[in-house]
Amino acid sequence: MSSVVSDMHGARSEHARVKRMLPPVVRGLLWALIGFLVMNTLVSEVFDRMPYHPFITRASVTLGWVAAVGGWILGVGAWEGAVKPYLGYPEEWVVPQDWRKYFMYSTDHKVIGLQYIFSSLGGFLIAGFAAMLMRLELMKGQMWIFNNPGAYLSTVGVHGTVMMFSVGTVALVGGFGNYFIPLMIGANSTSFPRMSGVSQWLVPAGIATVVISPVLGQWTTGWRGYEPLAGQDPAGILFYYLGVFALTTSSLLVAINLTATILFKRAPGLTWNRIPMYAWGILAVSLLNLIWLPEIQMTFVMALLNAVIPLPYFAQIGSPLTYMEMFWLFGHPEVYIIVVPAFALWQEILPVMGQKSLFARQWGIIGLVFVMILSGLVWAHHMFTNMRNSQMLPFSFFTEMISIPTGFAYLVSLGTMWRANLKLNTPTLYTLMSMFNFLIGGVTGVLLADPVVNLQVHDSFFVVAHFHYTVIGAMVFSWFAAFFYWFPKLSGRMYNEFWGKVGAIWVFIAFNMTFGQFFFLGLHGMNRWVPVYPSYLEPMNFEVSLFAFLLGLGFVFNFLHIAWMWNKGPVAKDNPWQAKTLEWQTASPPGEQNFDPIPKVISGFYDYRDQRLPIRNSPQKEPTS
Amino acid sequence: MGDILAFTLVWILVSALGEIGIQSLIHHGVYYYTATTQALDGEAAFAFIITVLTPVFAFIVVMIGYDMIRFRSREPGMRPSPRQFYNNKVFVSIWILVSIALNLLFFVHPTASAVEQMFNSEKERYNRHDLIINVTARQWQWLFDYPQYNITQAQDANGNSILYLPVDRTVRFVLRSYDPMHMYDPYAGVIHSFWIPAFGVKQDIIPGETRYMYVHTNKVTSYNVDPMVRVQCAEVCGPGHPFMEAPVHVVSNVDFMNWIKQQQKLQAGQS
May I ask which residue range the UniProt record assigns to the signal sequence (chain B) (predicted)? Predict the structure, then answer.
């Protein structure tokens, strides 16, 4: 779409060149600052003036934040790129075709995808650094890095929140989804490119909001921001609700955009029977996002009102458990929002690397869809410790049953690998590691679904280990699989196979040594959210921390490898894996137009009986195209 | 056929080795240290699930490993595998039936059976002679009252809250979250979670509600014997959360009555 803009030129682009402008990101920051100051001053000094109130009050910082995010979005380019054209003015947004295009509003899904990838990468590094601080603190049973438990708990909150809402739900959906879904379904753009361009810039805003939240005061609730405890916390919790609101809004817009794209922008011949597995995964995830994100956003609005006005919604005279119920009603589908794209990726990568037809494809799709449906029926297993007895069994039942559709991802993957010609390269290794890790996450999930066991291990490090196995173990490992699998497509270059494998084995060992031991810490009585714990747990915690640092270094090593080879790697062929899906049937990296002309799909993408391509670049014009 | 046979042999072998490992883990106690019948029930459920799941786990891990070694590509480029198939109705059917059967099994046992046992232990007719302990969770301290013995806020010599329990008794913990010592708002409470790791259960404490937790002690033990015999708040409740713990002593009936008398004397002296 950016090309459309630069094509329209003539006189206007000269005009645009003459009109000098700050770099968009800098202008966004400036407009955000102006927006905040103006709105904050209006609220705290004019509309809601109270004697002896400070300049920044809870009400003023909330509305000031809204103005700041508005200024930021407009400043990075939505003003010229989206608002003015909407009002009927000519579009005067010229995207330069160099590195600068990644630092401004854009409507090209590939630019947006990479922006999302970089944003989630930034979130991963920030939240990972917070995790390193936590593990440093936990090397000893007493406080020694942080000088008070509230600082530690705020760090826990920032770590969990940024990881979940800017990496877990974003990296494979907003990032790889935005980049690859149009390519995989044979389209040149997404359905709503302007909305998509705007939504990406909510991610850095959301991450920044959560990261600077301790400026307003500590918040001790962890990533759930849960009431009634949050009602006691200083104002830092406001920036938790607001930051997560920005991040979830971004994910919601991605969900709308990608759902519409998959439904309406498929190339001719790409029937429902031929939709690629990753697109199925993204479709399932987007439907989950569409259903559950508005629910949690409503909850956050309630919690925000509760904190700003203030109201006693969740205090003793209100309903103290309602927040937790609302949170987990969203919170468990959230887990599948994170892991369903990972399942889809296994089924995407293995047939290519095994050069063998996808096994039992329909069961893979049934698995993805039923995980999506059942995910809304399992959430209360987070609350066995506080629900009435009569509710336990149904939720326990569905939680156990969700392992059946989850297992179909394994059924398809294992069946595909059987008698394949499996290329044991870095993406394959990461995929298999992801399968192994999620298996441990799944087995311990069966244990957690059992109420009697749950009552012992809930809120202990056992649970922490379990969800790190599903989130890092399955999703982050699949994220790396995606990075290396699509590396030639994204960069046009090839990574180094040796160092790629070294990185994979490094993080695999460090990850399992870290979180494998978490299970035993939890069973031995280590509870969550504690910077201070009994001394008998100290030796194991000390040694776990060493492996955690090794894991952190391993991730940094992988990112350095990726960054280095992105610029210096040997030039790759357009389709180095001999894959059949559409994204490989065009140049690597793709030009401004993904496909010219739009290909016509004539068969499925997972048939490796021969080397015929599944498309016809029709010189004879088809009536549908 | 040869691959299937070889894989099956490896799978059986690894499952057997896995079972040996798992059984020795279970023998050492997956819960590390248990002091109530509830903990034993939970541990038994845990042990049953991991025992049954070991061959399933082994199946997938061995298959990943087998595929990696046996079906790896030995040439530099990409070449379609000479063996192509889309489906195997026998394999898919067995997979689906086994996964449904396993889940139904787990739902019946241990899920429903153990939950039934837990519900029964909470029924009033079984609990007529319970020791009742009123537990108050305040930010950030546990307070233990023994209403049957007119003891409020049982303390040790240093004034720290302490929990004494007789062995082989059913104990009913009555759990409330508020702050009797608060300067102006005793009902400003948050959610806590009452957890004694060695007792194998925990129960959240909700402000404004009264909740119950039942345990049946089965071992004379104390915090000094194993640090898992301690009360520990398991739900984050603010900056003081990690400090919300109290030592537990499970003692013989005679020792318990002695302790009661000592506490009563202490309280009489205070008033």
Answer: none
Hunting for tokens 């490993």 — which residue is that?
B65
β-strand pairing of B192-196 with B230-233 = antiparallel
Total domain count, chain A = 2
Write the pLDDT tens digit of every residue in B184-219.
888 888 999 999 999 999 999 999 999 999 999 999
Inter-axis angle of helices A236-264 and A176-184, to 10 degrees? 10
> Chain B contacts of A523, Cβ < 8 Å?
30-32
pLDDT at B14 over 90: yes
Within 68-127 of B, beta carbons closer than 8 Å to A belong to 68, 71-73, 77-88, 91-92, 95-96, 99-100, 103, 106-107, 110-112, 114-115, 118-119, 122
* One domain for residues B117 and B139: no
Interface ipTM: 0.96
Which pLDDT value is given to residue A354?
A: 95
pLDDT reading at A8 higher than 60: no
pLDDT category at A613 given cuts 50, 70, 90 is confident
Q: Which domain holds residue B251?
A: 129-270
Domain span at residue A465 reads 110-585
Report pLDDT for A17: 52
Tokens of residue B57, six digits: 């786990």
**Is B108 found in the same domain as B172?**
no
Whether residues A123 and A84 share a domain: the answer is no
Cα-Cα-Cα-Cα torsion B236, B240, B243, B247, nearest 10 degrees, comes to: -70
What is the model's pLDDT at position A231? 87
- Tens of pLDDT along A17-64? 546 788 999 999 999 999 999 999 999 999 988 888 899 999 999 999
Contacts of B214 in chain A (CB under 8 A): none
Q: What span, in angstroms and rounded, lies between the C-alpha atoms of A68 and A205?
A: 9
Q: Closest Cα of chain B to A221: distance in Å?
A: 7
Q: Is residue A621 part of a domain?
A: no
Provide the pLDDT for residue A9: 45
Partner B contacted by A363 (CB < 8 A): yes
Q: Which CATH number fits the domain that encloses residue A517?
A: 1.20.210.10
Report the alpha-carbon distance of residue A592 to residue A3 in Å, rounded: 7
Alpha helical stretches, state H, A8-57: 11-18, 24-41
Nearest to B100 among A404, A452, A533 (CB): A404
Q: Looking at CA atoms only, how far is residue A220 from chain B in angstroms?
A: 6
Q: Are residues A153 and A53 in the same domain?
A: no
Q: Between chains, do B238 and A232 touch, taking CB under 8 Å as contact? A: yes
pLDDT for position A19: 62
Amino acid B237: pLDDT: 93
- A73/A153 same-domain check: no
Nearest to B196 by CA among B166, B155, B226: B226
Residue B68 has its nearest CB partner, among A424, A528, A609, at: A424
Residues, chain A, total?
Answer: 625
pLDDT of A625 strictly over 60 = no
Q: What is the mean pLDDT of the segment spanning A551-557?
A: 97
Q: What is residue B102's predicted lDDT score, i.e. its pLDDT?
A: 95
Q: Are residues B104 and B11 in the same domain?
A: yes
Same domain, yes or no: A69 and A118: no
* Reported pTM: 0.94
Q: Cα–Cα distance between A410 and A434 in angstroms, integer?
A: 11
CATH number of the domain within which B189 lies: 2.60.40.420
Give B-chain residues touching A317 at CB under 8 angstroms: 187, 208
Residues A363 and A245 in one domain: yes
Name the β-bridge partners of B97. Answer: none
Name the burial class of residue B49, with classes exposed (0-12), middle (13-18) and buried (19+) by CB atoms within 10 angstroms of its CB: buried
pLDDT at B271: 59
Supply φ then ψ for residue B224, to 5 degrees: -75, -25
DSSP state of A473: I
- pLDDT digit string (tens) for A506-537? 999 999 999 999 999 999 999 999 999 999 99
The verdict on B60 and B170 lying in the same domain is no
Q: Is residue A7 part of a domain?
A: no
Residue A618 lies inside a defined structural domain of this protein? no
